[in-house]
Amino acid sequence: MERKIFVGARIFDGERFHDDKALIVADGRVEAIVARNGLPDGETVTLEGGVLSAGFIDAQVNGGGGRMLNDEPSVASMDIIAGGHRPYGTTSLLPTLITDTSEASAAAIKAAKEAVKANRGVAGLHLEGPHLAPARKGAHLAELMRPVEDRDVKAFIRAREAIGTLLVTIAAEQVTVAQVRELAEAGVTVSIGHSDCSSEAAEERFDAGARGVTHLFNAMSQMGHRAPGLVGAAIDHPATWCGIIADGHHVDPKALRTALRAKRGEGKLFFVTDAMSLVGSREDSFTLNGRTVRRERGGFCSKLVLSDGTLAGSDVDMISTIRYGVTYLDLTLAEALRMATLYPARFLRFADRGQLSPGARADLVHLTDALTVTTTWLAGEAA
């Protein structure tokens, strides 16, 4: 048995911190967190203070390392994207295909099946479109949007069976309650997003099995005192998970703080980056569906915009969202870490990720006290 013993840092197990303890990893899995006296034989990894945590999990990653998934929905692209985010602590992610053709979706599904087998950080696939509402298109192409058909439901179910984890973002207007129920019962993770729906329409789909809401507040009907919209339904529904983009541009921190205080259901908000290709790249622009997206520097982090000023994904990485949460959202470090580890794992139903419990994958990240990443590990191996 190949065993590694991590010492020298505070250990965050997904629920709480352990001081002056050691993390024991055997054959790529967590064995135990133990006192530092009487340690077993194995390779000792000595860390210089800081925090050792489970690696971060990102359910929405459009690109990274200079590559957009839409440009080339292939295994190679997925590997480049995962590699682009790994220096920022993300050890599991869902490459995300935004609204595109049926051919692009089929290629992404085929690639994800192989990329998951490679076990290098790709943990599934997120299809964000084409079943979105043109009224809330954001940076997506409205002309490609359409309702869900029975053939789409069958294709999603087959894809989930082949890949393991499939997340689909669908507007409430574009999917029936019966279709949501069929998808959910087959294990597809349904998230409502890019939708101008009423709160009642959203709640019907939540009750049918839609599990989450994609980037809360962005590209959706807002909360009014007589018309709560998708935002109000998402915050009020106790079983519904909400991804949030914490970059200082997508949502005002006052709105995020309000949502964090108001959300029914414990631990139901989690971080996503919605990152584009420029994360992990030195470029300042890229092309999205034939349109130029440019980086504008300033604020907590730079933002990405189309020529008309529309936000086009984010330029944020996961460790930066954690810093943002601690600095601007009144989060404890423990809760900020949960929002990047334990909570997305629960949303995606990853039983062996997002925490350092016995039997969990030894996907790890070491952070300095200033919340910068020093090292990540995949299955116990430095990556």
From TrEMBL:
<dbReference type="InterPro" id="IPR003764">
    <property type="entry name" value="GlcNAc_6-P_deAcase"/>
</dbReference>
<keyword id="KW-0378">Hydrolase</keyword>
<dbReference type="InterPro" id="IPR006680">
    <property type="entry name" value="Amidohydro-rel"/>
</dbReference>
<dbReference type="Pfam" id="PF01979">
    <property type="entry name" value="Amidohydro_1"/>
</dbReference>
<comment type="similarity">
    <text>Belongs to the metallo-dependent hydrolases superfamily. NagA family.</text>
</comment>
<keyword id="KW-0479">Metal-binding</keyword>
<feature type="binding site">
    <location>
        <position position="194"/>
    </location>
    <ligand>
        <name>Zn(2+)</name>
    </ligand>
</feature>
<feature type="binding site">
    <location>
        <position position="215"/>
    </location>
    <ligand>
        <name>Zn(2+)</name>
    </ligand>
</feature>
<keyword id="KW-0119">Carbohydrate metabolism</keyword>
<dbReference type="InterPro" id="IPR011059">
    <property type="entry name" value="Metal-dep_hydrolase_composite"/>
</dbReference>
<feature type="binding site">
    <location>
        <position position="139"/>
    </location>
    <ligand>
        <name>substrate</name>
    </ligand>
</feature>
<feature type="active site" description="Proton donor/acceptor">
    <location>
        <position position="274"/>
    </location>
</feature>
<feature type="binding site">
    <location>
        <position position="250"/>
    </location>
    <ligand>
        <name>substrate</name>
    </ligand>
</feature>
<dbReference type="GO" id="GO:0008448">
    <property type="term" value="F:N-acetylglucosamine-6-phosphate deacetylase activity"/>
</dbReference>
<dbReference type="GO" id="GO:0046872">
    <property type="term" value="F:metal ion binding"/>
</dbReference>
<feature type="domain" description="Amidohydrolase-related">
    <location>
        <begin position="52"/>
        <end position="381"/>
    </location>
</feature>
<feature type="binding site">
    <location>
        <position position="128"/>
    </location>
    <ligand>
        <name>Zn(2+)</name>
    </ligand>
</feature>
<feature type="binding site">
    <location>
        <position position="226"/>
    </location>
    <ligand>
        <name>substrate</name>
    </ligand>
</feature>
<dbReference type="GO" id="GO:0006046">
    <property type="term" value="P:N-acetylglucosamine catabolic process"/>
</dbReference>
<protein>
    <submittedName>
        <fullName>N-acetylglucosamine-6-phosphate deacetylase</fullName>
        <ecNumber>3.5.1.25</ecNumber>
    </submittedName>
</protein>
<dbReference type="InterPro" id="IPR032466">
    <property type="entry name" value="Metal_Hydrolase"/>
</dbReference>
<feature type="binding site">
    <location>
        <begin position="311"/>
        <end position="313"/>
    </location>
    <ligand>
        <name>substrate</name>
    </ligand>
</feature>
<feature type="binding site">
    <location>
        <begin position="218"/>
        <end position="219"/>
    </location>
    <ligand>
        <name>substrate</name>
    </ligand>
</feature>
